[in-house]
Design a protein that fits this description.
By secondary structure, the protein is of the alpha/beta class. The protein has 6 domains: 3-100, no CATH class; 106-141; 153-228 and 499-531, Nucleotidyltransferase, domain 5 (2-Layer Sandwich); 233-249 and 406-495, no CATH class; 257-267 and 330-392, no CATH class; 273-319. It is built from 21 helices and 12 strands. The strands form 3 sheets. Strands 1, 2, 5, 6 and 7 form a 5-stranded mixed β-sheet that branches. The protein has a 5-stranded mixed β-sheet with strand order 10-9-8-11-12, sandwiched between helices. The protein binds zinc ion.
Length: 534
């Protein structure tokens, strides 16, 4: 039997095909007449016996396929060889002792890589090559590491096994866009041991400082270290953010309108218009159903049971359509006192909410202390100060709508090119820069540094660091000291084209694979699935 439809079995003749119980059984005979002894490699054509090997193969028209192949056992005819007989190897079809063909194994491996154990196993059942999750995982664990071409430019980055407690390392080849390895920890020693295996490494891109700098120093002293531009700008952004929070009382005073319109308790508890409209739409739909069903003769009780509504509501709907609920603006007890609280908090620096509460009582405030405490807590959150007491949640704190932008927002103004800001913010920014010398200087230095990053040039780094080290802003001085500690890597990060961008992409992929295992996959399995393309 020779047909293009039959499975491809080079070196075998297909004798017989039967279908029983939905399983296709293909009987094939080896046409080999001689084979080499695995011990002495002597060629022998003296057949000892024939025997059958049963192999699972790729499905055929969705049906499970079993190959039954007749292979030979040969005598070893070399006089000095200790081996008497040996089985004919069939390397193109299956490995020694294997119970599935190579091509089936490859497909199963790919399914396992793409889907993992359980989902992969379920799919194999559908596809007619049923394989248990355990077997699938065993196949994955056995996959040999793909050989690595000696890398020249690598990047090191960490990824979280469990955020905040356990981290691993991923290593990528930035030139070939390839992930090279995944390590179970992020300590300097294991990364250094890995780097030592490849003296070809000339450039190492990494995050700022810490373990990977040490790993590169120990494991690849020949390589140039590149501090990642993104991490550097992020660190500067953080420094700016902290400085802005520290200066926020001043900023708040500068940007506050003459009549304080900072709204808290006096804001009516208004729900989002969209949510309100959706509720009303739902209500109207129910009303329509009540009307229609009532006309069909259903009783009140039946309607209530059927629509899962209260009888009273059904009755009300029968009389008139539901009206949108009206939210009456509330005039809070605090309204009269907010200007006082703001003055005490921002201008006079009082952070003690109970103190403020007592002072308000002396002025005639008749409300409770809770809303005052909550309000002050929100003010503290606004300027990024942790609250010592924690908010008392007996009343729901109303969202604080500030006329003055938050510290976070102002931090962004300092980082973005000025033409990206709306005119109003540009005006406010100019006001801050001109009214406060520290903010003016901070702004100038921040913008200069971000320009260095955008221009990919470290030529102005030295004068910048000198200026920053003498600036009025302690957060900026500390940032500059950090840069100076690893100046060579920072310089390389500004000048060279390499960055961690690619690696971040690989980490995203890794996290996806990790989540597919519901966090139960062991490290070795995760590593296999990350390194081998499915
Ligand atoms: Zn032999």
């Amino acid at each position: 039997m020779t047909s293009p439809l039959l499975p491809d079995l080079p070196g075998f003749s297909i004798e017989h095909v039967t279908i029983a119980d939905g399983i296709t059984v293909v009987l094939a005979q080896s046409q080999t007449t001689s084979s080499s002894c695995p011990d002495c490699t002597h060629l022998s054509s003296r057949i000892h016996s024939r025997y059958q090997r049963k192999l699972a193969d790729l499905p055929w028209s969705g049906r499970v396929v079993r190959l039954v192949v007749q292979v030979c056992r040969f005598f070893c005819t070399h006089p000095d060889c200790p081996r008497k007989t040996f089985a004919e190897p069939i390397p193109d079809l299956a490995e020694r002792y294997a119970r599935r063909t190579n091509r089936l194994k490859e497909v199963l491996e790919r399914l396992g890589l793409a889907l993992g154990g359980e989902p992969g196993s379920r799919l194999t059942a559908v596809l007619g090559m049923g394989c248990s999750p355990d077997t699938l995982l065993r196949l994955l664990r056995r996959l040999p590491d793909e050989p690595i071409d000696p890398p020249r430019v690598v990047s090191l980055d960490d990824w979280a096994w469990r955020r905040g407690t356990r981290y691993g390392t991923i290593i990528c080849d930035l030139e070939r866009h390839r992930r090279l390895d995944v390590l179970a920890s992020r300590d300097a020693a294991s990364a250094a041991a890995w780097l030592k295996r490849y003296p070809s490494i000339e450039i190492i891109s990494r995050d700022r400082g810490g373990e990977y700098a040490e790993a590169a120093r120990v494991g690849a002293p020949q390589a140039v270290q590149v501090a990642d531009r993104f991490h550097i700008s992020q660190n500067l952004h953080e420094a700016i953010d902290q400085a802005i929070r520290r200066c926020y009382p001043t900023i708040h005073q500068l940007l506050s309108p003459t009549q304080p319109v900072l709204l808290g308790e006096d804001l009516p508890l208004k729900r989002d218009d969209a949510a309100k409209a959706a509720t009303q739409k739902r209500r109207m739909a129910r009303y329509e159903r009540v009307k229609v069903l009532h006309e069909q003769g259903y009783s009140l009780a039946q309607l209530a049971a059927y629509l899962a509504m209260k009888q009273e509501t059904v009755q009300k709907y029968l009389m008139e359509p539901p009206r949108p609920s009206v939210y009456k603006p509330r005039h809070g007890k605090l309204t009269k006192y907010t200007p006082f609280i703001h003055r005490r908090f921002f201008q006079e620096g009082c952070r003690n909410s109970l103190q403020i509460f007592r002072e308000m009582q002396q002025q005639g405030y008749a409300g409770g202390s809770t809303i005052v405490v909550n309000y002050v807590t929100q003010l503290r959150q606004l300027i990024g100060e942790p609250s010592t007491a924690g908010p008392i949640m007996r009343t729901r704190p109303t969202p604080l709508k500030a006329a003055v932008p938050s510290p976070r927002e102002i931090g962004w103004w300092f980082c973005l090119p000025v033409n990206r800001l709306p005119q109003k913010q540009q005006d406010q920014l100019l006001l801050l820069r001109e009214a406060d010398s520290e903010l003016g200087e901070l702004y100038h230095l921040a913008q200069t540094f971000f320009r260095l990053i955008r221009d990919h040039s470290s030529s102005q780094l030295t004068p910048w660091m000198e200026n920053a080290l003498e600036s009025q802003t302690p957060e900026l001085r500390s940032f500059a000291r950090g840069l100076r500690r690893e100046e060579i890597a920072v310089r390389a990060g500004l000048d060279l084209p390499w960055s961690q961008g690619q690696t971040e992409g690989q980490i995203t992929r890794l996290k996806l694979i990790k989540r597919q295992g519901y966090g139960r996959a062991k490290f070795d399995l995760l590593r296999q699935r990350v390194l081998h393309a499915a």
